[in-house]
Design goal:
seven-stranded antiparallel beta sheet; single chain
Length: 167
Amino acid sequence: ATSRATRAARRRACACAPPATGPAGGPPAATGTWRATLRWRRFSATRFFLRIDGGGGVEGTRWRERPGSIVEIRSVRVGVVAIRAVHTGFYLAMNKRGRLYGSVGRTPNCKFTERIEENGYNTYASLHWRHRGRPMFLSLNSKGRPQRGGRTRRQHLSTHFLPILVS
């Protein structure tokens, strides 16, 4: 907790400084900021890499170098992410029935809450949709096919994904 005098002194100090402006009187340009997005692969506990193909289909693949298996994890806000395939440009999305698909643009269906589990794996639950009050998770079954979100639970190994940094 700061005192009133300290807060007032900070306001006076800020009021004396000239406002920062960028080109043409607009907001200041971001210089020297690091805006690179890290590229990852998501490896499921069922031994498949998450992949979004060119047609917007979601599947698991055993081959690491398959196009569509490299994804960017973009933070929407604290604990909420959007997953985008680098090769195809599709965002991972889940509809109200819990089916996974690739979306051309980032919609509310593309937002997932990311949680790091005790075993070091990450789980992704749809931020927008629930099934009977329970979260619906991103999941690949033992054959690499996506499971409907209503059939998934946080404890299922099919919902656990290990982030692998692409070098």
